[in-house]
Amino acid sequence: MSRVGKLPIVIPEKTTIDLKGSHITVTGPKGKLERDLPQGITAAIEEQHIIISRPSDQKRDRSLHGLSRALVFNMVEGVTNGYTRILKIIGVGYRAELEGNTLMLNLGYSHPIAFVPPDGITITVQAKENKVTIEGIEKELVGQCAAIIRGFRKPEPYKGKGIRYENEYVRTKAGKTAG
Question: When comparing pLDDT for 177 and 83, which is higher?
Fold first, then answer.
């Protein structure tokens, strides 16, 4: 039995789950998410828990069992609490600002970089601390947006300049020495 897949998912208050065959809809205070479960994987609601089960012990079913449980748990967590990623911008002259819904980044290039977030993603900028906060209810989308923004100027290993996650540690290298 999958260690992750066999764990029940607790349904919080103010969150409703709707099951129609292999289609699951989770509605909560922050919004609504929908997903189709993989073929053969079933979900059932027992008391205040969601139970994910698999049809057999074949390798494919075993691997999809834990995945499906994790995806449904992330949906429940997203509509209840939401997800947040914080990026720090480090470097002289590097800064971010919001123009309407567009994130404008000055990262030492000859031009500013404009990033328009997809629907369901909210971006806020703390200009004094050079922090960009990405919020949303879909964990995958929040992480993907954070990765795209970080990819505009990854932290470099000599001075540590660039965009990094809030708790990311960048190991710095020693530069050239006069000798």
Answer: 83
